[in-house]
Each structure stands twice: as structure tokens, then as C-alpha cells.
Amino acid sequence: MTAEQETWPERLAYWYHRAAEWTAASLPERVGRQVFMAGAAVQHRVRHAERRVVGANLSRVLGKPPGSPEVQAAVRDAFDSYARYWYDTFLLRALPPEEIRKRFQMHGLEHVDAALEGGRGLLLCLPHLGNWDAAGRWMTMHGYSVTAVAETLRPPRLFELFLEHRRELGMGIVPLSDGRRVGEQLVSLLGKNELIALVSDRDLKGKGVDVEMFGEARKLPAGPALLSLSMDVPLLPAATYDTEDGWMCIMEPPITIERTGDMRTDVAALTRKLAARFERSIAAAPTQWHMFQPAWPEGS
Questions:
Q1: What CATH number is given to the structural domain containing 112?
Q2: Does residue 9 form part of some domain?
Q3: How many domains is the chain partitioned into structurally?
Q4: Residue 25: CB partners within 8 Å, gap ≥ 6?
Q5: What are the pLDDT digits (tens) for 262-292?
């Protein structure tokens, strides 16, 4: 698709993100943050559909009605948190490594090192929480080879912008648009003892595993558990959080199950254990959960 064939919303999205990238990289940090927070206030005011979706999601997490003052305040904070995510992820390219080291807190790295010692690679599974790009940048700065699977975006040149950005952060990218080649590439990377990062708290195809989170049924993708079990690769849950002046990542020990010999049953069991870890991580900072799509089926 050429720029001339793009729809106006797609073209606007591209230039909006180009402007955001320039703002984060070029303006003084204090000014840049103020610009993004002002943008978050506008987005919260005008994006009614997203506001309702975030309210419905946070209502389940907080156990309060969507219209309650607590949930509505959390929704406003979630828009601020999401704006901060975009500002920080663009800022990371401009920050010198020593500044990132000063602002970043890493916990549980020994679990990653122990898993990689096995020589079979590692699957690191995260929810859409905090700033996972900051964690990826920190890992690559410290000599870890990290590859992320990226959801494709429209227009294509916007997706290319994100690919370039994450490559500048030192991470490899496997686009979901590659179809069957996604699995082939991940198998190849794991065979080289690589670390694969999967943001995996949303089932894009609606064919995932039924799990329970915050008392209600939803689906998580089966891919991470299937890949882990079929290749005997450790699956580690992780979570990233914003701190007052930086970021934090918590790596947990690998999730294990007692295998039954039936792959479908085992994939479901491992995915449900992952869901429980995600639930706990999200509960620790609900407004940092960047879930702007329905996390549960409509009407559930």
C-alpha cells in the first residue's frame, strides 16, 4: 500500500506517531512529558468508546461498578499511564545507557540466567503492563539477545516505523503477518538459545484457552504454552511497571505443570497457570494495564 492508497485515518495515525516520536526525542524531558499528559487529557475526553472499554476492564479488576468514582478515576489514570508509556518508549532511544541503568530496576534476573543455561532458549511472557520496551532495552544493553513478536499495524509504513523503533532499542522483531513463518522463526531462534518476549494477555484470534481472571472467563492465546511444551522450553512470566522516575521489571521462576501426556490438556493447564500470574501482576498496578480493547467477552 502506497501513501496515496492509505485512508485518511491511517495517514493521520502515521503522522500522529511521527510527531509523538519527534516530541519525545527533541524536546526537553519536562516539556515533552507535559505535552504527552495534555494529549492524554484530550484523548480521555474525546475517545468515548475507549473510555467505556477501559472502564469495563478496570471494573472487573477493581471489583467496582464501571460508573463508580473509583473506576472512573482509574480510567483517567490509565489514559495518563498509556501516554507515559508512549513518551517513555520513544524517549528510550534518546537516553544514554547510563541514564537507563540509573532509572531501571530489575528483579529476578537469576531466573532468566538459570533458564538460558539449559541451552534451549526461553519464552518470557508478559501482560500489557507498564513499559515492556524499557525492559527490552535494559536486557539488550546487558548482552541478552531479545526477540519480540509484533502485531501488525495499518498502514504498513506505521508498522515499519514501529519495527525500526524496536530495532533501534536493540530487539529483534518477528511480525505476526508472516503467518506460518512465525512459528518457524521462533523455533529457529529458540534453537539458538534466544530469549523470546511474548506480550500474551490478549487472544487476537478468539481460539485460545478458556481461563478465569478476576472472577470471569476470558481467553488467553495457546501459543506460548504450546511452544513451551512442544519444544521443552522454559516459560517465565514477567511484569513491568512504571516507577516514580523510571521503570521496574519482575522476572518470576518458570511455570511448571505435571504433564498428562495429552497436549491439549497440558496446554490448557499451563495457560491457566500463566493467567493466574498475570492476574496477580495486573492487580498490583491496575491503572498501568494498557488494555484498551475488551478483555472479556461483551456481556459477560
A1: 3.40.1130
A2: yes
A3: 1
A4: 90, 91, 93, 94
A5: 999 999 999 999 999 999 999 999 999 999 9
